[in-house]
Structures are given as C-alpha cells and as structure tokens.
Amino acid sequence: MKDDLNRAPLAEAVASYAAEKVTRFHMPGHKGGAGISKKALEILGRRLFELDITGVEGMDDLLQPTGVIREAQELLACAYGADASYFLINGTSSGLQALILGTCNPGDEIIVPRNMHKSMVSGVILSGARPVFVSPEVDPELGIALGVTREQVAAALDAHPAARAVFLINPTYYGTACNLGPIADLAHARGLPLLIDEAHGPHFYFHEALPPGALTQGADAVAQGAHKILCSLTQSSWLHVKGERIDRGRLQAVLAVLLSTSASYLLLMALDLARLQMVEEGHALLTRTIELAERLRRGVRRLPGLRTFGEEYVGRPGVDGLDPTKVTVSVKGLGLTGQQVELYLRYRHRIQVELSDLYNVLFIVGPGNTEEDVDHLLRALGELVREQAGKKPRAELPPALPPQPRQLLTPREAFFAPAESVPLAQARGRISTETVTCYPPGIPILCPGEEVTPEIIEHIELMKRNGYRIQGPQDGGLTRLRVVKE
Ligand SMILES: Cc1ncc(COP(=O)(O)O)c(C=O)c1O
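Above: query sequence and pyridoxal-5'-phosphate SMILES. Below: predicted holo structure tokens.
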C-alpha cells in the first residue's frame, strides 16, 4: 500500500477514459465537451469537460465503492493513519452532518461548541439530536473565539451523562488549536467517540511545525476541508475514521443519504491528486508556506497600528497550539474596521483577504502563494498605515454575550414547528426557529429552539447599532425574527 501512495489511481483512471476518446452515450449531456457553447469553451476550456464523467463502467460508485474509488480512499486512509476514509463532494459540511447522523438518534444529547459551524446546526436538525453547548474561550483583545478546555468538556459530560458523542472544532478558523488528547481520554473513559471538525487542519499531518492532527491525539473521526488549505477543488472534502467507536456501516449508510448520486469526478480526481501532492511534497510545500507566513507576520509587526498574534498566544485558555499559516491582523489601531481594510486592499491593491470582521482581517497563506504576494501585501498595508497616521484607534471591545437562553425545543422541533416572522421587539419570550450570530466573536446568541430573552433583544440592538455583522436570520437586517407560532 505504501508504494501505491505515489499513485493517484482514480485521477489516472479518469484521465485514461478521456484519452480513450470513447463515444459517449451517457451523462452529462455535453459528451466530453463536444456539446458546449462557444462561451463555455472560451471561459472554461475543453479539458474540464473531457474529464467530467459519471460513474460509467470501470469508474466505480462513490456511494458503494468497490473499484478505483475504493482504492483511492484506502490510499487516503493510509496517508492519514486512519482506518477508513471517505471522499466528500458536498464540502466538509456533509462530513460534519454525516458524523452527527452517524452517532445520534432523535433526542440523543451531543456535546458541541456553542460556535459550531452552521452545517453542524443542520446536522443537529437533520438528526433530531439535542445539543449540549460548551462555550469557547473568547480572546478579549481580538474578540475571536478560541478553543474549549478539557475542564469545560468534563463539566458538560458530568451534567449530561447520557450524551452520545463529543464533537469539537479544531483548529479554529483563525488557526488556534487545543490539546485534544486529554479530551479524547475523557470521552473514551465514558465510551463516547470524540469527533472533530478539522475543516481547517488537513495539513497538520504533514509537518512537525504544525499542531498535531486530531487523529494522532485520539479522535475517532474527523472531517477535513481538502479544498480550504490543500490544493483540491472547492467543495471537495474528506472524512476519516479511526478505531471501533464509530459504526462504519451506519456511517456509510448515512453518507449514501447525504451525498449526491451523481458525484463530480472532477472533485474526486482533485481529492485523489491533493492526497498525492501532500504525500509527495507536503512537507516541502508546508516548510515554504510557513516561512512565507512568518515573513508576513514579521512585516506586519513592523507596521505601527497593526497587531498580529503568534506563538506568545500558546498557553492561554483554549490555545495549546497555533497554525502559523493563518495570519490574523488586528486593524483597530488604525481607527478602521476589518471590513474597511478588506475593501481597501481589494479595490486599491487587488488583494483579497480570507475574511474580515469588525477588528481583524485574516490572511490564509497557502502553497500557491509566493514571496512577491507577501511583499505586495506588506507594501499595501504599509501604504494604508501611512495614510492612517494620526487617526484615533478604535478602542472598543466586543460586548459580553448575554446569558445562554433556555432550550425549550430541540433545533429539529423548532425547525419543523409552524413559524411566523415577528418584529424583533415582539419576539420576547418566544422560541426562535433561527440562529443569530454576531461577528465577532462568531458565537451564536440564539439557536433554533431557544427562548428569546429581553437581554438577547437588547444585545442584538446594541450589536446592530455598533455595526457588527449579524448572520443567520432570513431578515438580514434583523428587524424581524422567525419564531414558533403560539
Ligand atoms: C470550521 C468550519 N467547519 C466547517 C465548514 C464547512 O465546510 P465546507 O464549506 O467545505 O462545507 C467551514 C466552512 O468554512 C468551517 O469554517
């Protein structure tokens, strides 16, 4: 198996099918690109369509793999030290949902971080599970959510001895990681699996300067975004399982429910090739990427008014490690918001950040970046700093979150209950059917099934007045909220 790691069996099989010039009487309708419009040819090129096939003879079936897809998945498992791996063509989202549906029945409790990704909320709705929330630590200066601690998970497990699984995020979007080993021991001592949303950590397994991957710290299953940090195509992800705590038969059945029956072979090929790239050159690519990110971090630290955090953060509650390839820059000292800096960089310098919030911009440095990219960015930031010289820094810190409200229904019960949209002020005492999250810190103040308290309404009004981005509700301006009909 180890020798085969230097092959990409699935990508090679699709490429040979395209090379065979088969007369195609199968989907998709473009027949290898012969039927596409001039515009499609001009914009997308022919090659993409030649490789865009479906599960024809010899190309296996993602939902019941026995051939090349199975072989490619076995190589993936081998590369990650997993016992089984699965390709995902509906993003990491589908992996997180599969893990919840694979471990929880309706009414089962599951320990989750309060800032779980919205696809996990969907997983909770689909499964009917009851979330037990653990609140992540929040950095007081940057306003960003960090990891959760062993003590918090222990307290949740003590209070909810019937919980079926512990599901955490590691690393965070901003690249902070926590020590999962002791949390895995806690879960395992109670016979529970530790599941990890490792969307932002598929590279951890290929370089010693990165925090250890969750599978090496005792996690039973992880979902990773191969398209986020590695060089796969957007929407392609994968899922790994280790040990016997996860029922793999059930997981496979769940994946067959969640995934498309027409898997994109372009995405599958990209996954196979991304795994091959990491096996063959992952270490060298990451060494370079880490050096580039450090160059950026050093340059930012020389610019007055900007702040970026690094190794000195390790040791704070919820931070036991750091992904150096993520560079978070606090722009409060310039008297600007992160969103303003994002627009400045995009339209003045043709630089696009990964994300921005009220205080920060986040840069993800990847294998595709160069020294020129970093220097271009540093010059742009330098120009901005000079333009902003003498401006008053923004001093405010994110207001403390209101107390977590009572959960009166499960998210699934709230989702399916008859609902109505009411003015926010009239939502007091009602049950929300929506999630409401302000950025920063990206921790929901309301989840479906929770009671809308006066403190929550007051907090939302305050956040709106102060220009925080609010996500989740159908009414983006949040003048109204969808609540369960009385
Ligand atoms: C922490 C986290 N988990 C899960 C996801 C979902 O991943 P995908 O977009 O691949 O479905 C994201 C997306 O950004 C994420 O940030």
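The chain has three domains: 3-278, 285-387, 411-484.
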